[in-house]
Amino acid sequence: MSMPARHAIGVDIGGTKIYAGIVDLETGKTTATARKATRPDKGADFFVQRVGDVLEELLAQAKSSNIDLMPGVGIGLAGQVDRERGIVLGAPNLATGLVNLDLDKVIGDRLSLHVVLGNDVEVAAYGEQVFGAGRGCTDFVYISVGTGIGGAIVRDGAIWRGATGTAGELGHTVVQYNGRFCGCGGRGHLEAYASRSAITRVIQAEMERGRPSKLSELLRPDDPEIRSKMLAKCVEDNDELCIEALDEGADYLGAGVGSVISFANPDRIILGGGLIEAVPRFYERAVMRSREVALVIAGRKVDITHTKLGDDSGIVGAAWMAGSRLS
What we know:
Helix 1 crosses helix 2 and helix 8 (240-264) crosses helix 10 (280-293). The chain is α/β, with parallel strands linked by helices. Helix content is 42%, strand content 22%.
């Protein structure tokens, strides 16, 4: 592919952090990164300011290092987007009131950059397809497990979005009829049982009932959020409550992945996201459960792996998306 510049900025926005990087479009390597906490509780204006601040930081780094950048930025975010117009239709996990936000115009007015917008999991799938665990595979499903749960389906080498552009929303499949409330307003969704936010809610509820956990030693008074690395540390320390909650979440995730294997029969499943990367026990148990519940032939054939790019899948895919669209 011929591109006017070798580097582009990619941004991956989830419920926990806004993570961005300058990416070499020939190698998929990041040459500089910047990140800030998303802080969904702060609202839409804070969110917009935060994204602009991260981009300004990278633009300054590119200038000081004489890196020639494409005149646009790729952004993948956890929410529903209008890809053609660069508009965020809704993203409840990122900020309250974040509806019909013209991110292309907002960023364009502030930084004179064109925004190429996509769903965060779909964008991460691009990164893995071109430079990571999906390379050479034309038929795979990418599943991300972090604050929420999302998926992207690649068929014949292209993202398959379905009739309304929402295909791949594994986190909003029902695993327990009339079960726990999900952030989207539905009930019994996989995201309400197997995402990091769901697992931490279970842990916090048990701690409030008096069950002990080493998490109490790791949490800061000014930042009560339980992060994936904290859970990993508790697993290493054999924290009974955390292990119990993570195992339950992994069982639900495995049931969801197993259903995908039986229904879609892909060549490969790629698992990514903060919880997958941080807690090997969670990943391994989910894989085991998925093979238990999938149809035997499909379950034996499918290759289940984790991301090759790790935390960089989203920024690499976003930069590649921008490069492909703007070249």
